[in-house]
Write a structure and sequence with these properties.
By secondary structure, this protein is of the alpha+beta class. It folds into 3 domains: 52 residues, no CATH class; 115 residues, DNA polymerase, domain 1 (Orthogonal Bundle), CATH 1.10.150; 170 residues, Intergrase catalytic core (hpI Integrase, Chain A, Orthogonal Bundle), CATH 1.10.443.10. It contains 12 helices and 8 strands. A 3-stranded antiparallel sheet has the order 1-2-3, covered by helices on one side.
């Protein structure tokens, strides 16, 4: 997208230039366009055409599936993170193309999209059940965005997805849940026997995100100062680990660890050495039994499995341990005063009756 800004007697064309790889924020490039607004408008049109990408290579009618795969997806890969592009590709291949991919762009109607959305909402899930409204909405956003591009390329006369927009709004976000100190202590006590308990312990005591925990390497741990550096996040794409910068600039941080957590990590490293698994300075901190990286999704699955063995415990998501950490940290800060530090917050958990060093 490009737009025109006038500063005094000069015009500038401001164009979207993808995402900043460090911060994840949108970048804008300013193009001086002289003193004539008409010339600025022509420059904006040229930039829009360049950003639209190459024309479809095949002649004749262009089908929705071809346009999504050959034109829209390659363009999006230049502007979004690899994980986002992978998700777009997954939705196109799994949900859109099998249902309406063979429909020519100029014959696509709102009825086609209504039928697709209804089918996904009722039977589109893996087990024949319906997809979540948020997922159906994401499919709709992909179709709408691709038809916007087709409209700019003059392949269609109108974006028929606009007629279905009102039916597929985002779900209202659920209120985050958090455990009490007693509930967190109960969960950690029950999880102690599991092999990947150190990852759960570290998450509970630091509030780190799932991808940040999976992306840790032993080089991030400074044993002389008991500090942990958060420099990256790890995602799994097609079964392979892919490193990304942390979510925001503020997410690049150092965390002070208490002696108990340092001892938990030391024991974990000694166990890796005993089992003959990678534990060098440049190796992943948390690995599976074969020595490969821990898939972030597997941490959530482990968390859910452990919760199912504790029916009296309030069910929360893995990410809600981050909310739990923040809640307990805030409560303890209020109780102990403004000088309270992050390390001392762990006393709230230990006071609930959980002794980690046994």
């Amino acid at each position: 997208m490009a737009y025109i800004i006038q500063r005094q007697d000069r015009f500038y064309v401001v164009a979207y230039d993808g995402l900043d790889p460090l911060t994840g924020k949108e970048r804008r490039r300013w193009h001086p366009a002289g003193h004539d607004r008409h010339e600025a408008e022509q420059m904006a049109e040229r930039i829009e055409r360049d950003n639209a990408g190459p024309a479809p290579v095949r002649g004749g009618p262009t089908h929705l599936g071809e346009f999504l795969t050959d034109t829209w997806l390659p363009m999006k890969r230049r502007h979004v993170r690899a994980t986002t592009a992978f998700r777009y590709s997954w939705f196109v291949d799994r949900y859109i193309n099998p249902a309406i991919g063979q429909v020519p762009l100029r014959r696509l109607r709102a009825d086609h999209l209504d039928g697709l959305y209804d089918q996904l909402a009722n039977t589109g899930g893996r087990n024949g059940d319906g997809l979540a409204p948020k997922t159906v909405h994401e499919v709709h956003v992909i179709v709408r965005s691709s038809l916007d591009l087709a409209l700019r390329r003059q392949l269609v006369d109108t974006n028929v997805a606009q007629a279905t927009n009102a039916r597929h709004k985002r779900q209202t976000r659920k209120v985050p849940r958090a455990w009490t100190a007693e509930e967190l202590a109960t969960f950690l006590a029950a999880a102690r026997t599991h092999r990947l308990y150190p990852a759960l312990h570290l998450t509970a005591c630091t509030g780190m995100r799932r991808g940040e925990v999976a992306g840790l390497k032993w080089s991030d741990l400074d044993r002389s100062t008991n500090r942990l550096s958060i420099n990256r996040t790890l995602q799994s794409l097609a079964g392979e680990p892919v490193e990304f910068p942390v979510k925001t600039r503020a997410s690049r941080r150092c965390i002070d660890l208490d002696e108990v957590t340092m001892e938990v990590l030391a024991r974990w490293r000694r166990r890796l050495a005993r089992d003959g698994l990678p534990h060098g300075i440049d190796d992943w901190m948390f690995v599976n039994t074969t020595g490969r990286f821990v898939n972030p999704e597997s941490l959530s699955q482990l968390f859910d499995r452990l919760q199912r063995t504790m029916p009296d415990l309030t069910r929360i998501r893995f990410h809600d341990m981050r909310h739990t950490h923040a809640s307990l940290l805030k409560l303890s800060t209020v109780a102990l005063g403004a000088s309270f530090g992050r390390v001392e917050y762990r006393a709230t958990i230990w006071a609930a009756g959980f002794d980690v060093v046994a």
